[in-house]
Write a structure and sequence with these properties.
The chain is built from 5 helices and 19 strands. It has 307 residues and is mainly beta. It has a domain of 128 residues. The strands form 2 sheets. Strands 2-1-5-7-9-11-13-15-17-19 form a 10-stranded mixed β-sheet, with no helix packed on it. A 9-stranded mixed β-sheet has the order 3-4-6-8-10-12-14-16-18. Strand 1 and strand 2 form a beta hairpin. The chain is globular, with a radius of gyration of 20 Å.
């Protein structure tokens, strides 16, 4: 069913790769889309960033305003497929764009591996909303590593959602902010019999830069979640870190390790972190209104994961 849905939606993808094959590239006015290997041959900036010619992945260069979101889809559809992608997104000066990025498995038990190393470069005054959605199978291994470079006066809203978790997830995200740049990062982690390790860092390098990082981690069915989140300020700037974890069953564990590193007295960075469980009062309240215990827990979990 998942593959059928992907085929039905394929006309909406600007870039669609299944296993190792690129099935579709749809360029639109003002946006150039290539495979990463083609971009390496064509553009100096791609060679500087990739260093070596990539085997797979996509290159997206937003040169003019577009009224439609850019959509990419990377799918694992065959057993024991191992992807190794290098992606590059460039947004030119003053351009506003929305990017919807879906990475998924077509079936539950493919034992797939998904490595993705990406760089997102926002030129001066650019604005990007980056919606990163993951839907994986129960035995997949997933390792995304993304770096955002925000030039002067640019802004990114980065929303990561792990809707269907893999067995193993290693998530790394780095954001580097120049003068007057701003970022809002929202990370939602749904652990179901999962091993999840997260490294998130915001570097406030430019004067008057601002960064907010919010993380919600839900651990169910013997999950183990470790989250290292940090804000590092080396210039006059503001930052806030908000990490919350919710443990549903006795066998699950969450470790939140927040870090604030300030290298100037002109910066103001703060954090709050908490780990809790579902209270009996919440369950009782919802069950008195006709919900089963499972329905009540599902409703509480769903509300917790909304940022």
């Amino acid at each position: 069913m998942a593959m059928k849905s992907a085929k039905n939606a394929s006309g909406k993808f600007n870039f669609w790769q299944r296993d190792h094959k690129v099935l579709q590239i749809l360029n639109i006015k003002g946006v150039e889309i290539l495979t990463s290997s083609e971009a390496f041959e064509k553009y100096k900036i791609a060679r500087e960033i990739f260093k070596e010619k990539p085997k797979e992945g996509y290159f997206v260069w937003v040169k003019e305003k577009t009224d439609f979101p850019l959509t990419t889809c990377i799918t694992i559809a065959s057993k024991k497929t191992s992807q190794n992608l290098q992606n590059l997104l460039i947004v030119e000066r003053g351009i506003k764009v929305i990017a919807n990025v879906l990475c998924n498995a077509a079936k539950k038990l493919l034992h797939g591996t998904h490595f993705a190393k990406g760089k997102i470069l926002l030129k001066e005054g650019a604005l990007l909303e980056y919606n990163h959605i993951h839907k994986w199978g129960e035995k997949d291994f997933v390792n995304p590593d993304y770096e955002f470079i925000l030039e002067k006066n640019s802004k990114v809203i980065y929303n990561y959602q792990n809707l269907l978790p893999p067995e193993n997830l290693r998530l790394k995200t780095t954001l580097r902010l120049r003068e007057n740049a701003a970022c809002q990062v929202n990370v939602v982690l749904n652990g179901v019999n999962s091993r999840i390790k997260v490294e998130e860092a915001i570097f406030l390098e430019g004067k008057n830069s601002q960064g907010v990082l919010r993380v919600r981690a839900l651990a169910r069915k013997n999950s183990r979640i470790i989250i290292n989140s940090a804000i590092l300020a080396s210039a006059k700037s503001q930052g806030h870190l908000d990490c919350q974890g919710l443990i549903v069953d006795k066998k699950s564990k969450i470790s939140l390790i927040p870090a604030l590193i300030c290298q100037t007295k002109e910066a103001q960075i703060t954090h709050e972190a908490s780990i809790g469980k579902i209270s009996e009062e919440q369950l009782t309240y919802l069950r008195m209104r006709g919900l089963t215990e499972k329905e009540a827990i599902d409703l509480i979990c769903s509300g917790f994961l909304k940022i």
